[in-house]
Amino acid sequence: MAGAPSGYTKLRACLKCRMIKTEEQWMKEGCDNCEGLDIKNDVDLMINCTSARFEGMISLISPSESWVAKWNRIEHRVPGCYALDVQGVLPDDDAEEDEDKA
Question: Where does the record place the Spt4/RpoE2 zinc finger domain (predicted)?
């Protein structure tokens, strides 16, 4: 189960699911929502698959019961903090993996 960012500096949002964590949390835990995105202990992948440029923040405690989660289409995500909008593009390799799964 995910949680809130452990600090207020060096926050980054996942480019796929918009989850917000600190750089240290990304390196230690990876992404709790994105199965095919294994960014633990990989600085380059963490930098390429997350972005420090995001707007707004939603704190999600009970995703399935939250109308805010439903409105933002994140009701099936793990509890945690999510960006309203993330600026950036996933690397081509990761985007191709998503297309293969669809």
Answer: 11-87
Which amino acid is located at 91 in the chain?
P
Per the domain annotation, does 3 fall within a domain? no
69-92 pLDDT, tens per residue? 999 888 999 999 999 999 999 887
Where does the chain have alpha helices with state H?
Answer: 23-29, 43-49, 67-71, 92-101
Q: Domains in the chain: how many in total? A: 1
Closest CA to 9 of 18, 29, 20: 20
Residue 74 in domain: yes
Looking up residue 36, the CATH number of its domain turns out to be 3.30.40.210
Dihedral over Cα of 56, 50, 64, 60: its sign = negative
